[in-house]
Amino acid sequence: LLFPVSNLCGKCRPRDTGLLQPSLNFLYWSLHQTTPCSQQRAVAVLLSNVSLLELLQKVLECTWLRSSPSGPAYLSCEDALLCSGWLLVASLLLYQHRYNTEVHQTLSLDLTEVLNAVIFRNKKPILLLVSIMQFLRAALRQNFSSSLLVIVGQNTAQGAAQPQPSSLQDAALHPLATQQVFSLVVSLQNLLVHKDLLLSQAVVACLETLVEYLYVKNQDVALHVASQPWHRFLLFTLLNAGQKSFLQPEVLRLMTLFVRYQSSNIISQKEISQILQEAAEANLAELPEATSCALRLFLCQV
């Protein structure tokens, strides 16, 4: 079925939402639900379809050509198509890298536009933000060096042989700019305050991947981002007044991040002791799977 469905997608236009949206969903789930042996073949089938990749390029570009005036709770047919497109491309990035699959057509994206879609949300639906962040995580994990993806933007052009001192840090973070990093972190912090479960999971995961990327590129910037004083205020904003308030997956993952990068001004021995106390008093068998996984990672990091 991958052959006819992917070929059908390649013959469509981005405005054919009624046909494209379920078709892209089918391709997405075909990648994720098949066996590992078949998964490699499925990736090869999709990446060999030039017309499909050209269609995906046009779909993603529609993200910055339209706004969502109805607000974050409303998902239109066009927004749903964008979600499917971003999730499918994120998956293709992941599996192309895993299997080193041959690429017949590259996707070209403006990194500034991608970042601005998250930084300046303009009432974008939550699911669309989550989908874009999923793509951003995949690109960050591969250091923006995937053979499937061509990144363009203000920081991608090769400048003069002798960069200015103010641009040395940007050069280290290439293709990200330092100001883009700080703006993205602030935006992610603001998104966490919404306390939407799906959004919180995506934001924390994106923040984790971003700091990992920064740590490889420039440790000083990574540690500066991880130790921002606003993180501490954000952390306690997320905590509810009920019992076991620290045992929330997104809170535990944030705590793990701060412990990993030794942000002692954000998380102190007192908070670590409180988490251990709450874990000791909890019925571990009754904890949700996400909480159990986050708690295990936290304890391993400590």
From TrEMBL:
PANTHER family: BCL2 INTERACTING MEDIATOR OF CELL DEATH, MEIOTIC DOUBLE-STRANDED BREAK FORMATION PROTEIN 1. Coiled coil: none annotated. GO terms for biological process: meiosis I. This is MEI1 protein.
